[in-house]
Amino acid sequence: MNHDAQLNLPAVPESLAARIAAGGAVAWSQPVTMRTYEAGAPDEYPLFVNRRVYQGSSGRIYPVPFVDHVEEVPVDRQWRAIHLENRWVRLMVLPELGGRIHVGYDKSADYDFFYRNSVIKPALVGLGGPWISGGVEFNWPQHHRPATYLPVETQIEEHEDGSVTVWCSDHDPFARMRGTHGVRLHPDRAVVEVVVRLHNRTSEAQTFLWWANVAARVHDDYQAFFPTDVDYVADHARRAITAYPKADRPYYGYDYPAHHETGGDRLDFYKNVKVPTSYMVCDTQDDFFGGYDHAAQAGFVHVADRHIAPGKKMWTWGDAAFGHAWDRQLTDSDGPYIELMAGVYTDNQPDFTWLEPGETKTFTQSWFPIQKIGVAHQANAEAAVNLEVTGHHLQAGVAVSRPRPSAVVRITVRGKAICEQQVNLAPDAPFTWSTLLTDDAAPTDARIIVEHDGTTVIDWAPRPRTESAEPWQAVPPPQPAEIESVDELYLTGLHLTQYRHPTRSPIPYWEEGLRRDPGDARCNLALGTERFHRGLYSEAEAYLRRALARLTRYNAQPRDGETSYLLGLTLLRLGNTDAAVDALAKAAWNRAWVAPAAVERARIAARTGHFGEALRLSIEALSCGPDDNRARALQIVALRRLGRPTEADDVIATALAASPLDHTVCALRDGICALSGLDGRTVIDVALDLSRAGDDDGALEALELAARIAPTPAGEFRPLAHYHRAAILDRLGRTQEAVAARLIAQDTPDTLCFPAGLDDQHVLESALSADPTNRQVRCLLAMLYFDAQRGDEALDLWESAIADGETGTVALRNAAIATYSVKADPAGALALYERALAVRPDARLVYEHDQLCARAGVSVVGRVANLDARRDLVLRRDDATVTYCNLLIYVQRLDDAATILDTRRFAPFEGGEGQVLAVWERLNLALSRTSEQEGDLPGAIKAVHDAIAVPEHLGETRHPLADTTEIYTRLATLLDQSGRHDEATAARTQVRGHAIVTPVLDDGSVDYFATSLPDLLLFPPLD
């Protein structure tokens, strides 16, 4: 179906239309107007939620501001859009929403092979809040993309072969790695190619995953397809597995085998999956998968090298009322969708891999539409084929991704050709053929071959079916004391770190390893690395030196240079430059660390004016890490300082040919004007790159630009820009200018300024040393420390700032959280919240204050009185409103609760479903009991029916496997009392016990495999 009537795509500019008609590919930028439900303003309070579980890994959100509200009334908004088109395909990319592909349209089939959402309607699904469905979302370094609702930088590139690429790039909000994806169309090919370049531009090893999240519109006749050798699929973290495509056991609590007779055990059809479900391929020898719309006779295939791109996943909200409620949260009229996700360097969630300092990983993924052939049984980037043999009947189909005139299609059975035709294949001209066989044949007897111009395009014969061994299933690791070997203790901690586990710390495992063997090199290295990342450099040095002592006990030259490299970074942070150079040089004895160590040594040389040495070392780094533009930036600056500008220009051209949107190299080429349009944090990143390369003048100019950039949903960075300027000016001996920069910083608004990382720590500590009376610096540094699990130091800073007159609500609130968690002092924390509320009542403060009251044992009556006094603020938040209504029910103010729940609209956060529904059911059951006590049985029965019938304005409905015991048992009891026994018997058939897998164990601790938690855990239970 063509949806242009709802989302009007602009016509191709006349200047480009002729190129399309001639078989070319074009790209152009032109905005589109879409009905939009705007995301709310970012919350000015940082969320310190290190134990939050999100998509199976850490839901830590700091330093990104959190958005917890979406407007209910849409507006027409103009969005930046970049369009790509050729003869076969039209695409639309939205740079302001993470560079996602929003439209993927098969022109010849008049079919959206990617789900086209006609509106921008975010729901609270993303890591930072808002998230939209549809198109293709590129998720990295974790799922969902932390920057999914933030802009990317873009550039259109036209290539000599006639292809066009829309490059999209950003620095991830957490580790500041750079991710670039290019959406590419080729001349006269119906292939959407995505070219990806992931660069760890930091000095430390990082973890990441990559999933391209493709949405497809679904209905009863939509089928997801995996390769034919897929026998098993697994859910998140391999907690559970089942056979595929026919489930052989209950999965996500749903009993698929019970529906075998009607075909309801088939997981590949959306209509059969009734509960929110993920399933990921456990193993395959093939490179493809996709989806097919049998009603439209159209679909798509994804192709990528399985050796690095094993991830193949289907996700759905479920074809039931619960899932349909989520569909309504995400679109106005475009209906349900599934996600057919493709993972690179990952095959599950969470499943992270490493990206070493300076390392770049590059890869491609491809999609192309198919028509009329049914699901693909085999595919490559050129063609997809279907080949089915059932008894006497054989049918076949071929779809191609580019025109193949006079291609030969040959079909054989038991080696004998039964069909050989010369056909003109094209993306809009698939080949289909069927016949009746004279004898029964098995699927493995048949084969299909497609040839063109003397080469084989695709060759497929169904494989013999063999009984696969059931794949492994994950189990939680034992507690440290239960693990026998130090080796396993180290590896368990490494696993928890690599997978960013949200609720179990690796530290006890490594500490237990050192309790048993204090000199263990690996555990000492791990703990040294952990302390380094938290900015505890002296502690890091001690661990790293113990590791080196063990490594060099018998051999002065360790095989692995990582420990020496980390020691070099640590010594550099401690100001011991000469010793740092020695450690880094020793690390480079190991080839794996040559490039990272050479980059760090080149930076030291550049900062001290030794540009000849910096050039030599940058060339050495590039010899082992040729994709590291950090080294190229050093080379460019060094060549210019050495009076060799032409060579520097050549290096710039080489760097940008490989990575067109490298902001640092662009700034070296074009000056600071190249940074216009970037967010302040990214400009600061570039400034620090320039400073490390020896270009302090360029760095200061970039920081002056950053200091003028207004805050965005990514945060406020102007104060930090000034503090970074001051640190460089101090190093250059320009003391008075540094003092002036810090004074300007103090006068700069700092709402949404959330410092993070070792560089911010350095400049804030320097500023505090220069002026210990600076309350702003103390509050900013405290946030950074608290996020780094340095609560004692953070609280000391907040308390001293408050004692010196700090009255800002952010500081008071932050100090309250620290007072609770560090001092285990709920009463002191409540006093600070009350001071903050007296300064400026705020809806989040009201909600958090009440949650703290609950932890502190404040009576329900007292909590209700507090919330009554600020009712207008309470009703601005879903979470506060739910809490308030629960308390109103407890104190028997049922009419008050009903007034709220009958009229207020709610929007659940993914993972927090069921909270609004629970209070709705509780209210109506309470009303039912009241009516019964008053002798009004009809009224009591009506109230239970109201509890069962969930109104749409609650934003959700009952999970298909939700526990209905209390509701239907009560209904049956009331019906029996009314003499309506047949209805009572029917009601009892609806009783169902709790069958949903919960993220919390019976003892209240967090499940190791939890995929979501409804509570942000600001106030976890005190030990």
From TrEMBL:
Keywords: Repeat, TPR repeat. It comes from the Bacteria. InterPro entries: CellSynth/LPSAsmb/PSIAsmb, DUF5107, TPR-like_helical_dom_sf. Signal peptide: none annotated. Pfam families: DUF5107, TPR_16. Residues 61-370 form the DUF5107 domain. PANTHER family: LIPOPOLYSACCHARIDE ASSEMBLY PROTEIN B, TPR REPEAT-CONTAINING PROTEIN PA4667. This is DUF5107 domain-containing protein. It comes from Xylanimonas allomyrinae. The lineage of its organism: Bacteria, Bacillati, Actinomycetota, Actinomycetes, Micrococcales.
